[in-house]
Write a structure and sequence with these properties.
Distance between the termini: 114 Å
Strand order of the largest sheet: 2-1-4-3-5
Oligomer: single chain
Length: 443
């Protein structure tokens, strides 16, 4: 990434980057831009624009003057001037005429840009910058402990070290004003750097930390969204969304920014939908409004004690409403109902389920059946025998085996009483071995 004097084979290249840091396709960092003027031929007497855009940690960007006319490309590391002294390290995010367009977009004049670019980052600058970045995680946790000890109602969300390791900026969120003078003193003593505290909102905190939204994609504020517009619950009402704060809130705890994305489409569609018609009078009775589809321009009505809903076109609903005002009632709304297309289901489609996606456990069931059948066959093979007429039926073989077992059990029961008597006599000392010699003439 730029530093040609680096002898470590691209030592400044960010981890995971396969294009030397100049891909700019959301792979290296947040809020990347695409220079669509990079490959265009400029006039012969064209003088390159000497202001460039530099990107730092998080979503922080700033403009700097290239006073020495250093050849810079997107993704290169440069050392730039700071407002408090020293220097900082950042990536080049935009060069050329697009920077002039960005200045106009942000309502900045050329005279407002006063900071300069010192040089391309050297290996020494990069090593010092990486060492400062490695301290951020430990510094943040220590500062949180200090804030808890002082009992301050604030949340420290991120720490940003300056490239020369002389200054640390702490970003925090709080509901109101916080007196952190004692906290700054303790942090300056423990970290030995200059301390700057910046209060940010919940949305800015989410953009710095990043995350995954409920849609499964990266947060918009951490990838491309820079303008945070106010979001109200009216946007959810216009889109017929349930007013559930758990579903409408984003990672920052505020209403999702994406609620405003399709709001204009819904507002345009709602222009044709009447908001004062909630019932229609007919000779059959009064039909109440149950549902409205603003994109299909249909309104569903139903009669009391009837479960079926009747779809009507919005233009026809307006005509019937006007007739009701004149005292005219149609016979039945079912005569005015719109024929809806049948929903697409598996029965309607002309294909067969040849893949076998009906059950996730279909293979397990087949294996179980095979195991059971194999076990039964093995048991039958053990008890099968061959007679004069060939293989005997399994039931007859089992009956014979059972009869033999019964006979053997009966024979054992005949000998058991004698054995039991001998055992009892032996326990009592009455049993005498006939081969044992007599003692003292006594048996």
């Amino acid at each position: 990434m730029g530093c040609g004097s680096c002898s470590s084979g691209g030592g400044c290249t960010p981890a995971g980057c396969k294009s030397n840091g100049s891909c700019l396709t959301n792979g290296c960092s947040k809020l990347d831009v695409y220079d669509w003027l990079a490959h265009m031929d400029m006039p012969a007497n064209y003088k390159p624009f000497n202001i460039v855009e530099v990107k730092f940690k998080g979503s922080r960007k700033d403009f700097y003057i290239n006073t020495d006319n250093i050849y810079l490309e997107n993704g290169e590391l440069v050392a730039v001037e700071t407002s408090t002294g020293g220097y900082d390290i950042g990536h080049i995010s935009l060069t050329g005429e697009l920077v002039r367009m960005q200045l106009k977009k942000k309502h900045l004049k050329l005279e407002d840009v006063t900071k300069k670019i010192y040089r391309k980052a050297t290996p020494t600058d990069v090593d010092k910058w990486k060492a400062a970045k490695d301290l951020e995680w430990e510094t943040m946790h220590k500062s949180r402990k200090l804030a808890l000890e002082l009992g301050l109602s604030m949340k420290l969300s991120d720490v940003d070290y300056q490239g020369d390791k002389t200054k640390a900026t702490f970003y925090y969120t709080a509901e109101g004003r916080v007196d952190f003078r004692e906290l700054i003193k303790r942090m300056a003593e423990s970290f030995r750097v200059r301390i700057e505290m910046r209060q940010i909102g919940m949305r800015q905190e989410a953009s710095r930390l990043g995350g995954i939204g409920s849609c499964g994609r990266e947060l918009c504020c951490s990838t491309w969204l820079t303008d945070f517009k106010t979001v109200s619950t009216a946007a959810a009402r216009y889109q017929n969304l349930s007013l559930n704060t758990l579903k409408l809130a984003g990672q920052c705890g505020k209403l999702k920014c994406c609620l405003n994305y399709e709001l204009d489409t819904y507002m345009d569609a709602l222009k044709h939908v009447p908001d004062n018609i909630d019932h229609l009078a007919t000779e059959k009775g009064v039909a109440r409004l149950q549902k409205t589809d603003i994109f299909k321009k249909l309104m569903w009505f139903s009669y009391p004690n009837e479960e079926s809903w009747i779809p009507l076109e919005i233009d026809r609903v307006k005509e019937i409403w006007q007739l009701n005002k004149e005292g005219i009632k149609p016979e039945d709304l079912k005569d005015e109902a719109v024929e809806l297309e049948a929903p697409v289901t598996a029965k309607n489609l002309d294909y067969e389920n040849v893949v076998g996606q009906d059950s996730l456990t279909r293979l397990d069931d087949k294996n179980r059946k095979k195991k059971k059948s194999n076990n039964r066959n093995k048991g039958r093979a053990q008890y099968s025998s061959q007679g004069e007429k060939g293989n005997l039926p399994e039931k007859q073989n089992l009956n014979k085996i059972n009869q033999q077992a019964i006979r053997a059990a009966a024979e054992n029961t005949e000998t058991k009483p004698a054995n039991n008597a001998n055992r009892n006599n032996r326990r009592k000392g009455r049993y005498r071995n006939p081969n044992r010699p007599k003692e003292n003439g006594n048996e």
